[in-house]
């Protein structure tokens, strides 16, 4: 079973988002990623210069994560609106 860890930047970005949207995102993470057997069923592997990163879609927001199968952890490092998240990379 996988656990989820947030980077400091992801926590900072979540705090900037409207509280109701942040709550929806947190609930989605708890429901779909925490203690999951396979975190890949809810996400999509990115390609190109973002290869190795997994994207999760929660409404108009995107979560970028790296999955470490050796320690069964999902590292969420980016949370942003869909029109902004790809500009950062």
From TrEMBL:
InterPro entries: RelE/ParE_toxin, RelE/ParE_toxin_dom_sf. Its EC number is 3.1.-.-. One of its GO terms (molecular function) is hydrolase activity. SUPFAM superfamilies: RelE-like. Coiled coil: none annotated. The keyword Zinc-finger does not apply. It comes from the Bacteria. Keywords: Hydrolase, Toxin-antitoxin system. Belongs to the RelE toxin family. This is Toxin RelG. It comes from Veillonella criceti.
């Amino acid at each position: 079973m996988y656990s989820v860890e947030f980077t400091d930047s992801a926590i900072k970005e979540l705090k900037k988002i409207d509280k109701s949207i942040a709550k929806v995102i947190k609930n989605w993470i708890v429901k779909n990623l925490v203690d999951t057997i396979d975190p890949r069923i809810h996400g999509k592997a990115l390609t190109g210069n973002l290869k190795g990163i997994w994207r999760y879609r929660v409404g108009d927001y995107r979560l970028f994560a790296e999955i470490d199968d050796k320690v069964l952890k999902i590292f969420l490092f980016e949370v942003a609106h869909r029109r902004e998240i790809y500009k950062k990379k």
